[in-house]
Amino acid sequence: xxxxxxxxxxxxxxxxxxxxxxxxxxxxxxxxxxxxxxxxxxxxxxxxxxxxxxxxxxxxxxxxxxxxxxxxxxxxxxxxxxxxxxxxxxxxxxxxxxxxxxxxxxxxxxxxxxxxxxxxxxxxxxxxxxxxxxxxxxxxxxxxxxxxxxxxxxxxxxxxxxxxxxxxxxxxxxxxxxxxxxxxxxxxxxxxxxxxxxxxxxxxxxxxxxxxxxxxxxxxxxxxxxxxxxxxxxxxxxxxxxxxxxxxxxxxxxxxxxxxxxxxxxxxxxxxxxxxxxxxxxxxxxxxxxxxxxxxxxxxxxxxxxxxxxxxxxxxxxxxxxxxxxxxxxxxxxxxxxxxxxxxxxxxxxxxxxxxxxxxxxxxxxxxxxxxxxxxxxxxxxxxxxxxxxxxxxxxxxxxxxxxxxxxxxxxxxx
Length: 415
Ligand code: ASP
Ligand code: MG
What we know:
- This protein is an alpha/beta fold.
- The chain contains eleven helices and 20 strands.
- The chain has an eight-stranded mixed beta sheet, sandwiched between helices. Strands 13-18-20-19 form a four-stranded antiparallel beta sheet, sandwiched between helices. The chain has a four-stranded antiparallel beta sheet with strand order 15-16-14-17, covered by helices on one side.
- It starts with 9 loop residues before the first strand and ends in a 9-residue tail after the last helix.
- Aspartic acid binds next to loops.
- Residues 214, 265, 267 line the site of magnesium ion.
């Protein structure tokens, strides 16, 4: 007889809201988890709130108060994930599988008290390790941490991904698996580009750019934590069996397509300050008040000045525009600018790929493809592995499809 060394994985499996939307789906997930444990792997589970529960809870809060207290809102929102964790544990019990539902607090996830936008400070994984040793599957409520004073703090919308990755790191897991309502990471949003394809794998840096530029597949801070700690993440569907997409830092094949994806983002607004005096300290005077108000600015473009006057443009999320606009008159007055304009009829389209940086001509090809598709470019920004154009929102569909074709992503053999 030949001996085979069996290698069992320690894995954190995360199930998103759609995957646990109702009792039937929860039972399905329980079956998946139990199967995995039965095969010998050591599994820790992280769950999101059921379906649109988080939105419903926010609506409910707004029905009782126009301006809900941030601490109480977090107390409320945390319960969405508590429900899923308890229900999934029950479903596993019904399959004769030992499991225990844990709140973020019971799971030892600590955060500072910035309600609604907490950051994970540390994880004390003793309880989870204890449960694992006792043969119980820990089912952890995602999206939340707790302060040293035992108050709940939520980590930002969609941040159950982050919980899963951070737990994976704290537990020394071999990988993190996130099960979603998509079959993986695609070369573009399949709802916009019919020819979009699933990527078998994608580099951390590429995924981080995609997530930051508007891809909804993975939370960007989750990708960041995975990249710094080199924890691979598998993105797969919880409904259909399939290989999914592996996000990792593994070796790159030179032959593969250099542009990995086209990403679109509609959540963008633009502010332009006209005739800004070209003086030392002006930019600080503009952006300090915005930062203090918690407005996070994306792209900033300042032109070379002509007769000591310049225009300065920046973009931001649409939801932040009202807050920013409330400050702009004062800012214009303080710096002696002529005034400002705001525009929300825009979208952002990016090409992303680690190979872009080592080969010239990508920008030119992108602009040519957009020109041929009759799309006018409003603003351009780049990083080492990304080129982004801001265009009119009515042209977004054309733009994304044209770029998908121009960079060979329609072709199954090149993706
Ligand atoms: N339930 C939270 C949300 O809807 C967190 C998550 O789903 O990841 O934002
Ligand atoms: Mg977005």
